[in-house]
Amino acid sequence: MGKAFGEVIPMQNLTPAQATVIASIISGLVAVIVCLVNNRAVASKQKIENAKRDAKLEMWMQTVDRKLDTHNGYAERFGEISTDIAEIKTAIQFLKEK
Predict the structure, then answer these.
(1) CA–CA separation, 85 vs 78, rounded Å?
(2) Are 26 and 18 in contact (CB under 8 A)?
(3) Residue 10: what are its φ and ψ, rounded to 5°?
(4) Which residue of 7, 15, 44, 64 pairs with 3 in a disulfide if CB–CB is 3.0 to 4.6 A?
(5) Does residue 11 surpass a pLDDT of 70?
């Protein structure tokens, strides 16, 4: 088996400065690991939120498209009505001249 940490670096032979450096390195490594785990968790949550937002946006776009299609149908009918109104005005003008 491998040696224990105390056997690899004999702790009783360390100066206070060396012990502080080792503790700082260990603390830094732990902090980096915690940050990586936290970032992955946040990224996962954001991915889920983005998917929900995209689904809502897609539904909204479909609703807008449906309303636009309906509006376009009215616009086509309005063109026909405008033509009918022009014909009626022409007929009224013709009758006025008689």
Answers:
(1) 10
(2) no
(3) -60, 115
(4) 7
(5) no
Residue 25 or 97, more confident: 25
Give the whole-angstrom CA distance, residue 79 versus residue 86.
Answer: 11
Q: How far apart are CA 43 and CA 33, in angstroms?
A: 15
* Torsion angle of the four alpha carbons 93, 96, 97, 98, in this order, in degrees rounded to the nearest 10: 130
Q: Which residues of 3-14 are buried (b: 16+ CB within 10 A; e: fewer)?
A: eeeeeeeeeeee
Give the 3-state secondary structure of residue 2. coil
Residues contacting residue 9 through CB under 8 Å, at least 6 positions apart? 22
Tokens describing residue 39: 């970032």
Joined tokens for residue 69: 């299609």
Tens digits of per-residue pLDDT, 42-89?
999 999 999 999 999 999 998 888 887 776 666 667 777 778 888 888
Measured CA to CA, the distance from residue 6 to residue 9 in angstroms comes to 5
